[in-house]
Amino acid sequence: MPTPDQESNPIRILVVDDDALAAAGITALLSTADDLSVVGHCLDGIQVAHAIRSLAPDVMLCDVRMPGMGGVDVVRSLHGQAGAPRILMMTAFDEDGQVLDAVAAGAVGFLLKDEDPHRIIEAVRDVAAGDAGYSPRAARQLTQWVQDSPTADARRDALEKLGLLTDREHDFALALVTGASDAELAAQFFVAETTVKSALSAIKTKWGIRNRTQLAVVVARSGLA
């Protein structure tokens, strides 16, 4: 539940989707939450830079496939820029995995467009709070995309990365691909949530990655999850 402070200072969201009907639907959904505010909508990636400067969103929900400047190019263009919002990709269930390129470029999570509405709202909140945003269902799709096109080098690299971890970090990493939150992992392993956060931070440092979605990709490439 949002706190009174969150309701008075709502999370500012920019929706980027060339499908006006889809954008209207996601806007209507997010507007049902008092702590979320959709501040703008872009029909293509070219409009994004100006919208970010003028609207200062905290989170950007960005479609993967758009004519002209697609979602992956949008993420790449914003990587490392001061004031850039945290980016949550939106994709159809039957996409070909382009979202993996977006994750590699800096997106912090992704949602399936026909996701449960509650999951979409929670993912936006998670991303705004500095976490990654993806549901168990999206996590399964992420794993499937990765496992459908593995390479020997990618699998070897992933296994080597897993070999750098302590036993506890290894267990957390494998469990993470289910899309579980920190709180859910803490309950699963009977530890404090701070223990989970510390372990995941240590994994990201050892692997030289930025977020838990990239962490899930590495685990999926290992073939162990």
From TrEMBL:
Pfam families: GerE (PF00196), Response_reg (PF00072). Residues 158-223 form the HTH luxR-type domain. The keyword Chloroplast does not apply. Residues 12-128 form the Response regulatory domain. Signal peptide: none annotated. SMART domains: HTH_LUXR, REC. InterPro entries: CheY-like_superfamily (IPR011006), NreC/VraR/RcsB-like_REC (IPR058245), Sig_transdc_resp-reg_C-effctor (IPR016032), Sig_transdc_resp-reg_receiver (IPR001789), Tscrpt_reg_LuxR_C (IPR000792), WalR-like (IPR039420). The modification 4-aspartylphosphate is found at D63. Keywords: DNA-binding, Phosphoprotein, Transcription, Transcription regulation. PROSITE patterns: HTH_LUXR_2 (PS50043), RESPONSE_REGULATORY (PS50110). The keyword Phosphoprotein applies. Gene3D superfamilies: 3.40.50.2300. This is Response regulator transcription factor. It comes from Leifsonia kafniensis. The lineage of its organism: Bacteria, Bacillati, Actinomycetota, Actinomycetes, Micrococcales.
